[in-house]
Amino acid sequence: MARKEPRKLAMEINHRPVTFPEGVTVHRAAELNGIDIPSLCSHKDLSPFGGCRLCMVEIEGMRGYPLSCSTTAQDGMKVLTDTATLGDLRKEILKLILSEHPSSCLVCDERVECKEYQGTIRKAGVTTGCRFCPNDGQCELQDLVEKIGVTEIDYPIDYHGYDPEHDDPFYDRDYNVCILCGRCVRMCQEVRGTSVLAFTYRGPKAKISPAFGRSHAEAGCEFCGACVDVCPTGALADKASKWEGKPDGSLISTCPFCPIGCQIELYHKNGRFTGARANLDPEVNDGQLCVKGRFCLPEVTHHFERAKRPLLRKGQYFRVVSWEEALERVAGELKGIAPEDFVMLVSPDLSNESLFAAQKFARECIGSSNIESTARMELGGGLGLWSSLFSLPISIKDIARADVILAVGLDSRFNFSVVGTKVRKALDAGAKLVTIDPCDSNLAGYTDDWLSPTPGKEGALLKLFADRLAGQKADTSAAAAEAGVDSDMLERALAIISSGHEPTVIIGPRVFHYSDGTALADALMTLAGAKKVNIIPLYFGANARGALEMGVFSEVGPGGVSRNGKGFGWTELLSGSRRPKVIYCVGDVAFQERPDCDFLIVQDTYLPSFKVDVFLPASSFVEAGGTLINMEGRVQQVVRVENPPEGVVFGFMRPDWRIFTDIAKALGSQALSYQSAADVFKEIRGAVPGFPAEVDRTPRRMKPIDRPLIVAARGDKAADGDFWLVAEPGGYRHRGIDIASKVGGLCELALEEGFRMHPEDVESLGLADGDSIRVTWDDSQAGAAATVKADPECSRGAVYFTRRVILGGIKQGRELGPLLGLRQNPARVRIARAEG
Amino acid sequence: MKGRDSISEGGLSELRREFRGERGDLIPVLQRVQEIQGYLRPEAIRIVSRWLKISENEIFGVATFYAQFRFHPPGLHHLRVCLGTACHVRGGEQILLTAQQRLGVDTGETTPDGKYDLDRVACLGCCALAPVVAFDQKVHSQMSVLKIQRILDEHKSA
Q1: Does domain A171-302 have CATH number 2.20.25.90?
Q2: How many CB pairs below 8 A link A and B?
């Protein structure tokens, strides 16, 4: 479906000839031409509402004062936006709005003096009675009062006296200052597709709320903050930055939390990073974010536990030391070390610059090919499969253009929400959606067909769809029986998908983590060969693709070149079959206990929970900057927002690439001599084919690496039991920590804690929500115990848990520890009440 | 029908024959649900939500807009207080307030013992008798705070 560019039409606004694309409203046409018509309810991404009535204009030949936000602009229209009559009308309307909106601060004669001579923080609230809004100068209503010039309100005042709502995480709601413009409601319904917010009741009792007075978390809120961003008043405000005041400015950066690579605006005040909002970048996220990008960035950066100084273990003491001393000690340990005694672990959350410098440090300064990354765990199915997937033209933007969408194992509520909004957009344009997921998901609410197979059979079902799209014949009824789905429903879903001309297939991260990925890999390769299918494979680890391209694996070098270095990695480390003398963790702390070695170097933003020998404080993304590669292959910039001098006040953090350079210097090696991130970038350009000369956001296709497509099935022996134990990958990793351990709101939601089961299963076992259960898988009594949550979204006959890779700071991670070693996924297990 | 929520629960299966399951069917569907079950329960809204692909919150928003939908089971006896123009002028608010206090419920709710429900109506069509209340089928005229108390007390003890 090629979309035509809309025609350009011409009209006259305030006697000035202007042009506009066909189909827009008068309000939008004026906005596009830099003419401001006051409005509180219209928004460019939302349907016309006509609620505030401030945008009324005079149009020649039309009776009365039509609303510019709900009148379609037509060729040759003559519009006046700013006459004396309109000014009077607007003033009256604004007064009516303010008669329900506590506004003493807006119309108070003494407001200037009040601010000037504010003696205590409490004063404004106590003396003027205004205790409702943050009064931070980020209020459209306030701006309009100023602009339209309302100085007194001569209507009877009718405030609501609602209690402010603080119970949900991330943002506060105070509907006393709400003007019922409906932007949040339309955003939630039209753009996000979540419909958590609705107008409830009627007349003076009308209020924005979820059904039955439920909390937002219960009602299915994604906490994406889109409603907060469009709110023209202070009714909705971030908890974390509510009282920060007006920011000094913002910089456009890339979100460092997942491989979608959303563009965000980082706000700063007094040189300090204060908050993030979505950027209206049309290429990736188009003004939308998920909870991680919208709310979690400041807390992860400025958490009080942030480790900011080099630390060194001396005997039984762990002391703050200078960089010189720490580097000297590290260099002393690394000098002359045998290559096989050294292992370097690098996080897929690092920038390309740091990843490249890391592998160069290991390979050239130490001469070791023992370099490994948790990217290997996140890219389930093996590096060969993923390099093939990255060689496809992946396009997040084009999901919205699809006419049929197949989503496998995807719940876009808290992770990959931006993908969810694109799906929603496609559905609004008439696309059909089929979901394959044993669990209920947010997409199941509006899917055309929901196939709910036995966990682990998603790949086999996908193969069926792939064959159909590739025009091959397959036995559906046998496949339906094997996967445990209704064959009529499957047949119908197949018909829906094969009717499309531009199919999109989205594969959620859980599916890649099953131990037997043969069917899935097979299906994906069939799809890749079929007619133009847009395949969206989802994984965690923001720069895992960068890790693959920079070559931080013993068998893969920069540019995805296959190397036959005899290095070792996770398999040997975690099983204990190899014991290195020195382990160097660069933001990649995938251990619960201290790994067995003589000298452990950790370079990260937070201290791990176990004993380390040297800790080197690394800069976070806002302090270092750099580039990340998103899943489409775009090389995107992370902008440095904070640039404080190194010292006791702000800390001694250094960018990762710089620390490698410093150690190399201390070792007397000439291999690394970078002065800035740009130096590293230049060198990457030479080493990685196809890497751009400067930051370039065009999607790139990777050359598949010369590796077997699929790592052999990892399952060892089949266990028996009545339930399927399904491991889901953890979605909140960032460097060495799980961000849920640092972000209060995520901690409150406890999305990844313990076990989850269907309420009826919980009941049939004689258990209740919150009880402690023990999961065992063979006669050896090996098992793990944790609390179980009755979650109606889970499928029957299965127990779900989150198998995190990065366990930093998470309390319950320890209890589920024994499950990390379980090779099979899904595995048959037995469940019993945990004793004690 | 897909997924685990089936509309066959709670005697709502016949709705599938009556409607095509489109977004625009929402209000007639809610009316039928209320006819069958007496009021709109959260479970019924969940089922309708899945069926029509409209979120529960949106449905709640629509249903609370209209006076015709109830979210509490109807009581054995209905007390309706008129707040039409004439009754309003003659102090209908006071009557409603007294009824609320006497029954211990809010407008639109039912007493915990399931005996009485309380509603406000816009006009009962006998403005000359204002303020009026309707107790079950009988209309009581020229109410006062004392009279409404007496009616309720007498009925309770009867």
Answers
A1: yes
A2: 57
pLDDT greater than 80 at residue B30? yes
The structure tokens listed for A380 are 């389930």
Angle, helices A656-666/A323-334, rounded to nearest 10 degrees: 60
Looking at residue A380, what is its pLDDT? 85
- For A198, which of B2, B3, B61 is closest by C-beta distance? B61
C-alpha distance from residue A615 to each of A275, A586, A611, A806 (Å):
28, 10, 10, 18
CATH 3.40.228.10 fits A383-537, yes or no: yes
Termini Cα distance of chain A = 62
Tokens of A327: 């580097």
- Among A202, A209, A212, the residue with its CB nearest the CB of B42 is A212
Q: Residue A582 forms beta bridges with which residues?
A: A342, A599
CATH entry 3.10.20.740 includes domain A8-128: yes
Instruction: Looking at the structure, tell me whether residues B104 and B55 fall in a common domain.
Output: no
* Nearest chain A alpha carbon to B56: A211
Report the C-alpha gap between A20 and B86 in whole angstroms. 54
Q: Which residues of chain A have pLDDT under 70?
A: 1-4, 105, 110-132, 134-135, 565, 710-719, 779-780, 811-813, 836
How far is the C-alpha of A551 from the C-alpha of A360, rounded, in Å? 10
Mean pLDDT value across chain B: 87
Helix A352-360 to helix A656-666 angle (10° resolution) is 20
Q: Which of A189, A215, A795 to mutate to test the interface with B (most CBs of B within 10 A)?
A: A189
pLDDT at residue B4 greater than cutoff 50: no
Are A198 and B60 in contact (CB < 8 Å)?
yes
Distance, in angstroms, between A565 CA and closest chain B CA?
A: 50
Q: Given B33, B65, B97, which residue is the final one in a domain?
A: B65
Asked if this assembly's ipTM is beyond 0.90, the reply is: no
Please tell me the predicted confidence (pLDDT) of residue B21.
85
Query: Which residues of B are less than 8 Å from A212 in CB distance?
Result: 42, 60, 71
* Alpha carbons A753 and A740: distance in angstroms, whole number: 10
pLDDT digits (tens, 9 = 90+) for A398-433: 999 999 999 999 999 999 999 999 999 999 899 999
Q: What's the half-sphere exposure (Cβ side, CA atoms, 13 Å) at A425?
A: 20
Q: Nearest CA to CA, how far is B132 from chain A (Å)?
A: 24
Of A836, A834, A716, A715, the closest CA to residue A775 belongs to A834
